[in-house]
Amino acid sequence: MNNKNNDHNPEIEQILDILRPTDVVELKVVDGDSSIFIRRPKPTTPNNLSPTDKKPGEIAMPRETRPLVIKSPLVGTFYFSPSPDKPPYVLVGNHVGVGQKVGVIETMKIFKDVTSNVRGKIIRVLVESGQKVEYGQELFLVEPEEPKNV
Predict the structure, then answer these.
(1) Which of 21, 40, 104, 110 has the most C-beta neighbours closer than 10 Å?
(2) 38 and 76 housed in the same domain
(3) What is the 3-state secondary structure (H, E, C) of 71-97?
(4) 23-78 tens-digit pLDDT
(5) Which domain holds residue 90?
(6) Are residues 38 and 1 in the same domain?
(7) How far is CA 111 from CA 18, 25, 42, 86, 118, in A?
(8) Of the ranges 7-16, 18-27, 113-122, which is most confident?
(9) How far apart, in whole angstroms, are the C-alpha atoms of residue 123 and residue 28?
(10) Is position 50 within any domain?
């Protein structure tokens, strides 16, 4: 990781790409004699005013929602489908429910289902089929669905 300030280090760029869509504020990576420490400012919001709070006579605007994340439950190789000749479990635009299978991870020749822990619409896939993934790595971004009033 030894580089001059003007050089672009692909490893650091990869770390930054992974961090961008997350809420991680601080990260330290140590690799032998080299280390990097990243600190981002904490998000700030007004203390007592939420996006839907309104003054008298104002129309309430919908609360801005952040995408939910489906993360890898273990280390291994992620696959979108049970085999190369089968369709993927989910695609961008598909709606998923809690407990729905969205992929599988192979670890030591054992396949483990990856299931959604959120309810909503898949808006972005963050990995490729056949890609090595880490525990807790973000796999999908999901637009949350409002609960249905019955």
Answers:
(1) 104
(2) no
(3) ECCCCEEEECCCCCCCCCCCCCCCEEC
(4) 777 777 777 887 777 777 765 444 444 445 444 544 444 555 788 999 999 999 99
(5) 66-150
(6) yes
(7) 25, 33, 38, 16, 22
(8) 113-122
(9) 30
(10) no
